[in-house]
Specification:
- With 270 residues, the protein is an alpha/beta fold.
- The chain contains 12 helices and 6 strands.
- The radius of gyration is 21 Å and the shape is elongated.
- It binds adenosine-5'-triphosphate.
- Adenosine-5'-triphosphate binds next to α3, α8 and α10.
- The site of adenosine-5'-triphosphate has 20 residues, from α3, α8 and α10.
C-alpha cells in the first residue's frame, strides 16, 4: 500500500462564516493560525516563536475538524489530514512512515496545516494501554514528537490536533514548543444552535412557518453535526411527502427533530 494512503491535500473551502457560534474561539484560532503563517517575518524580527501546535478538544460533532479547515482556508494553507486511529491500525512501521511523509510533504507545501484527528489514540499517556498496543502507540508518539520538534526551523507549518479525551494525552505533547495552545470546543449554546441552523438552511427553500429561533430552543442537546443532519433530513422528509415540493415546512423539521436522540447528555453540556 502507498504510504500516502489516508492523506488528503487541499486548501479547504470552508470559511469562518460556515461555522455557527464560537465567536471568541474563532478569533483566538485566527490569531494563532493566521499570524504565524502570514507574518512569520514579524515573528522572527521580534524574536518570538509562534505557536507550533494547537490542541482542540470537546465532544464529537461540534466542529473541531471544520474549525481546522476554516483556519487553513483563512491562512490559504495546504491542509493535511491524519487520523490517529488510522495510523494505529496500520502495519508495523507503516504508521510512522506515513507520519514522517506527511510532515515532509507539509514542509514542501508550506504554508500548511496538519490536522491530526483522534490524537489520543496515538498520543495516549505512556503506560495507559495494554503492553502490546503500548509499543505501537509509543513508537508513533515518539515519531510525532520528533516531527513536531523538527518544525522549529520550518516556517508556516502548524499542527492542529483534535480529541475528545484530552485527559488521555501524553504530557510530553503538552510541553512548550509542542501543543502550546489548548482550546475547548464546547457543544453549541442557544445562540450557536440558531446560527448553525441558519448556516445549514441558507441554501434551502424554507416555508414561512419555519422558525429557526424556536427550533434552536427545542434542540438543547443537539451537536452541530446533529443540527446539520436535522436540516438535511427535513428536506428529505419534504421530498418523500411530495417529490415536487417547493419548500421545506416546519412540520418536516418537527418530524425529524422528534426522531433524533442526541448523543450528548445534560451533564456534558453543563
Ligand atoms: P469528530 O470529533 O466526530 O471528528 P468534530 O468536532 O471534528 O467531530 P466536525 O466534523 O467539524 O466535528 O463537524 C461535523 C459536521 O457538523 C460538519 O459537517 C459541520 O458542518 C457540522 N457542524 C458542527 N458544528 C458546527 C457549527 N458550529 N456550525 C456549522 N456546522 C457545524
Amino acid at each position: 500500500p502507498s504510504i500516502t494512503r489516508g492523506v488528503t491535500v487541499e486548501v479547504p473551502k470552508v470559511t469562518w462564516e460556515d461555522i455557527g457560534g464560537l465567536k471568541e474561539l474563532k478569533k483566538k484560532l485566527q490569531q494563532a493560525v493566521e499570524w504565524p503563517i502570514k507574518h512569520s517575518d514579524a515573528f522572527s524580527r521580534l524574536g518570538i516563536s509562534p505557536v507550533r501546535g494547537i490542541l482542540l478538544h470537546g465532544p464529537p460533532g461540534c466542529s473541531k475538524t471544520t474549525l481546522a479547515k476554516a483556519a487553513a482556508h483563512a491562512a490559504q494553507a495546504a491542509f493535511f489530514s491524519l487520523s490517529g486511529a488510522e495510523l494505529y491500525s496500520m502495519y508495523v512501521g507503516e504508521g510512522e512512515a506515513l507520519l514522517r511523509n506527511t510532515f515532509q510533504r507539509a514542509r514542501l507545501a508550506a504554508p500548511s496545516i496538519i490536522f491530526f484527528d483522534e490524537a489520543d489514540v496515538v498520543a495516549t499517556k505512556r503506560g495507559d494501554s495494554s503492553s502490546n498496543s503500548a509499543t505501537v502507540g509509543e513508537r508513533l508518539l515518539s515519531t510525532l514528537l520528533t516531527e513536531i520538534d523538527g518544525l522549529e526551523e520550518a516556517k508556516g507549518i502548524l499542527v492542529l490536533a483534535a480529541t475528545n479525551r484530552p485527559y488521555a494525552i501524553d504530557a510530553a505533547l503538552m510541553r512548550p514548543g509542542r501543543f502550546d495552545l489548548v482550546l475547548y470546543v464546547p457543544p453549541p449554546d442557544l445562540e450557536a444552535r440558531y446560527e448553525i441552523l441558519c448556516v445549514h438552511t441558507r441554501n434551502m427553500k424554507t416555508a414561512s412557518d419555519v422558525n429557526l429561533r424556536r427550533l434552536a430552543e427545542d434542540t438543547e442537546l443537539f451537536t452541530g453535526a446533529e443540527l446539520e443532519g436535522l436540516c438535511r433530513e427535513a428536506g428529505i422528509v419534504a421530498l418523500r411527502e411530495d417529490i415536487s415540493a417547493a419548500v421545506v415546512c416546519d412540520r418536516h423539521f418537527q418530524v425529524v427533530k422528534d426522531s433524533v436522540k442526541p448523543a450528548l447528555t445534560k451533564a456534558e453540556i453543563d
